[in-house]
Write a structure and sequence with these properties.
two-stranded antiparallel sheet, 2 strands, disordered C terminus
């Protein structure tokens, strides 16, 4: 319930909007084949960070050209003045030409070039980080998908078969109720681990979709919870022996 209310706050829901329901349980991963090269290109093309840096680089390059032009062109100015001595008006104008002999805007040019170089390096570093984040999300998606498939096709059926065989042994009075309950506990733990693996899969998929849509890269990728997964799979031998 607390998690539900946190979602309502994040989504800005109130009133009758908070009575939403889920469409259904998390879907089992289907085909998890990933086109790594294509996704990296999509992430680079859609990244809002890179688009922003590209626009800033374009503006910095224009400033460099502007300062260079100012450094070689003379500065022209003109004006008009009027004066009255109490009897009549005296009107006149002036025109000034300043030649860039000593000040050729070297400082402004150097500053603009430094800014352009810094932006270029930031762009390259961000592009590398976007590609790496894309590969990380893909790796986590593929890993969680394969683990979920292994749970669904191998571990859960094996646990259920072990429970069925244990129940037969219990009915034949060859095993105690505590042994039966222990096997049932392992079936439950395997189901919980499978659900958590599905959650890991969909979190990784959401992170990849966010990157491919141009959103900001996740600062910390969601860690994959393998504690219960390994515990359930390592303990398979004890239940399958009955």
């Amino acid at each position: 319930l607390d998690a539900r209310e946190r979602f309502n706050v994040a989504a800005g829901l109130s009133g009758t909007q908070t009575s939403w329901t889920l469409a259904g349980p998390l879907a089992h991963p289907g085909n998890i084949a990933i086109d790594t090269t294509s996704n990296e290109k999509k992430a680079i093309a859609a990244s809002l960070e890179l688009i922003e840096l590209a626009k800033r680089m374009e503006a910095a390059a224009k400033r460099v050209g502007l300062h260079r032009t100012e450094g070689v062109m003379p500065h022209l100015s003109g004006g008009f003045h009027g004066e009255q001595d109490g009897i009549s008006w005296e009107l006149g104008g002036h025109f000034t030409v300043a030649l860039p002999i000593f000040d050729r805007a070297q400082g402004r040019i150097s500053s603009a070039k430094s800014e352009l170089g810094a932006l270029r390096e930031r762009y390259m570093a961000t592009a590398v980080a976007v590609r790496a984040s894309t590969r990380m999300a893909q790796n986590r998606l593929e890993s969680a998908g394969k683990r979920a498939q292994h749970f669904h096709s191998a571990l859960i059926p094996a646990r259920e078969r072990a429970l069925a065989e244990t129940l037969l042994q219990y009915n034949a009075m060859h095993l105690s109720v505590f042994q039966l309950l222990d096997v049932q506990r392992k079936v439950t733990e395997t189901g919980i681990a499978y659900t958590e693996t599905l959650l890991d899969y969909w979190k990784a998929r959401a992170s990849l979709d966010q990157i491919l849509a141009g959103g900001r890269r996740p600062q910390a990728m969601a860690s994959v919870n393998t504690g219960q997964t390994s515990g359930a799979s390592m303990d398979m031998g004890s239940g399958a022996g009955h």
